[in-house]
Every structure is written in structure tokens, then in C-alpha cells.
Amino acid sequence: MSDLLRVATLGGDCTGPEVVAEGVKVLKEVAKLENIKLELVDFDISATRYLKNGGVVITDEEIAELGKFSSILFGAVGHPDVKPGILEKGLLLRLRFVFDQYINLRPVKLFPGVETPLKNKGPEDLDFVVVRENTEDMYVGVGGYLKKGTPDEVATQTAIYTRKGCERCIRWAFELARKRNNPKGKKVTLVAKTNVLTYGHDLWMRTFQEVGADYPDVQKDYNHVDACCMWLVKSPEYYDVIVTTNMFGDIITDLAGVLQGGMGVAAGGNINPDKGGTSMFEPMGGSAPKYAGMNIINPIATINAVSMLLDHEGYSAASKRVMKAIQFVTGTKMKSQVAGKMGYTTSEIGDLICENL
Ligand code: IPM
Ligand code: MN
């Protein structure tokens, strides 16, 4: 925790800036209440700018500037006129890699008043976190084509796992289980596919066992990824901390996200826990072009990301304050978490959170 909290904001496209504006509103208010000195710097990086300036997603100078911040609040990028993959790889994945944000943290918590598609499950059943490795696996871009465009075409996309990559992620997950100190018992579940991926996921399993030995107070558990998908739906209360690979983590966190009420509430952090690291917090939803400019998108996910950012920066009281206000507003005020059906506008939700901090 430092005397001055400096946050870079990156609203992005369509509804991205609308939700980030509400996140900033809440950040300013909680900083006032908690006597935190806050400095915000906004970065204009978006598909709109990319389309205007001839194909530059982000410059090296901007990356260097962003690197001077310990936290970034990210909205969403994506535009109907930009081909899929360009912004995802050019911005989101690039930032994850250059800043070595090796943890992708996805808390899965059902807030009061929020509807889950699961029958007979409530907030007490859905409260776990997914720690997804964020810098390796099939995401590294290793691969290529042979005889492209011919009937004999071959394509490869290699999953890379390193001992260092698994170890730092697994260790962080065990530390998190200690920090969460779940009254039902501390547990870390490794989710992988050791019965088929007998090299890469064997490395994960061996590393899990070795690192786990340093945490005798934490239960060590393993699920194959396919079985995990069943358990997530059937018995989500089974989980405390899940640690998993980048690709599997991507998939199961969308499943988990919908269980907690969907894109309007789910948030994530791309974290570099090392000293001097730059982390990035974001709502899980995309840029939702069809809702842009209507003031009807749900900003709760972004405000949830603000709570994560504050916790990561060491402002735990401020983080909890935001979290409590979110739960009060979802539990007693909002009609739904769906855009346009909340009973309030986007900016009214931001105001409601501020009033209840
Ligand atoms: C996520 C997203 C990204 C990913 C995409 C946009 C590249 O789905 O953050 O989960 O696959 O990691
Ligand atoms: Mn995803």
C-alpha cells in the first residue's frame, strides 16, 4: 500500500467508457471516504482510434507509460468494424504478456439478489475463485502452417508449459487459499487433463504436489477439466480455490461467470504480483456495441473490478467497503443484472453505490 494510488484508466470502445466512468466515480468517492490520495490518468486506446489512425492498436510509448502504473482499470475493446483477433491479440494479450501478468484471477461470488441459472443454489453455495495461469499454454502463439490453403494443409498450435510458469501460479493459489481462510476448510483444486495431456499436465501435477507440500494446512484436490464442468453446475459449493491452465481457465471461467449472474457482474484481474508489476482489472463483459451510448449497461462488474483493484493495492478497507455497497445495491435495489432491465440507468447505479459506501 502506498500513500498515493495512481490508476491508469483505459475505457476502450462502445460501452467500455460508460462502465469505466462509473468505476472511476466509485473509486473517487471511496478514496475521499478512506483518505486515499488518488491520481487517475486516462488513456485513449480503442478500436475507434485504431480505425482512424491506420492500424495502430497501442504504441510502444503508451506501453512504457502504462508500465509506470501499478494498476490499470480496463473497460472493453471490440468494434464491429475490426476483424476478430486484432484487438484481442494486439492489446489485451499483449498487455498480459509484456507486463507478465501471470495470474488471471476470477472471483466467482453470487451477490445477494442476483439470479443464478442453478436451481436451489444461493450466495452461500457460490463463493470460490479461479486462479488461471495467464502467460503460457496455447496462448503463446507458437505454431504455424504447412501447405496452407491446399488439401494437405497442416496447422499446429503448441501449448507451452514451463516449470517456472506453473510453479509461480500454483504457489500464488495456495497463498490465496490461506488468505481466504475459508471456514469450510482451505482447499486448492488443480483442474487439468492429466489422463490425456501426459507431458504438459504431468508437469502441472508434479509441480502441484511439490508446491502443495509446503502447505500442509491446505487440502490438495484434483479434477479433470471435463468433470470440473459437471461439478461447477451440480455442486459449486465444493470449490474454494481452483488453479488451472490458461486455456482451460478461459473456458471454465465463462461457465463460472454465468453461474454468478453473468457478464453484468463478473470481474477479473490480470495480476503481476511481483514488486513493481503492472496489473489490470476488468469487467468480464465485452464492449456490447448494441447498448453503446444508451446508459443502460450494467456497471456492477466494473465496480467489482474496482474492489479487486483496491484489494490488490493493499487498500483492504476500501475494497471491502465497495464490495459491501455492491451487495447492498444488488440485494435491495436492482431489479435485474441485465442491461436495460436493472430498474436504473448505468449512471444511477454508480450513484447508488457511492451513496451506500
Ligand atoms: C478472457 C477473454 C480473452 C481470453 C480473449 C478476449 C482473448 O476471453 O479474458 O477470458 O481468451 O483470455
Ligand atoms: Mn475468456
Kindly describe this structure:
The protein folds into two domains: 1-102 and 263-357, Isopropylmalate Dehydrogenase (3-Layer(aba) Sandwich); 116-260, Isopropylmalate Dehydrogenase. It has helices at 16-33, 47-52, 60-66, 86-98, 163-180, 200-212, 225-234, 246-259, 300-312, 316-332, 346-355, and strands at residues 4-12, 37-42, 71-76, 103-109, 127-133, 143-146, 154-157, 187-192, 219-224, 241-244, 267-271, 279-283. The radius of gyration is 20 Å and the shape is globular. Strands 2-1-3-12-11-4-5-10-8-9 form a ten-stranded mixed beta sheet, with helices on both faces. Strands 6-7 form a two-stranded antiparallel sheet. Strand 1 (4-12), helix 1 (16-33) and strand 2 (37-42) form a beta-alpha-beta unit. The two termini are 21 Å apart. 39% of the residues lie in helices and 19% in strands. It is built from eleven helices and twelve strands. The protein has 357 residues and is α/β, with parallel strands linked by helices. Bound molecules: 3-isopropylmalic acid and manganese (II) ion (MN). Manganese (II) ion binds at residues 250, 254.
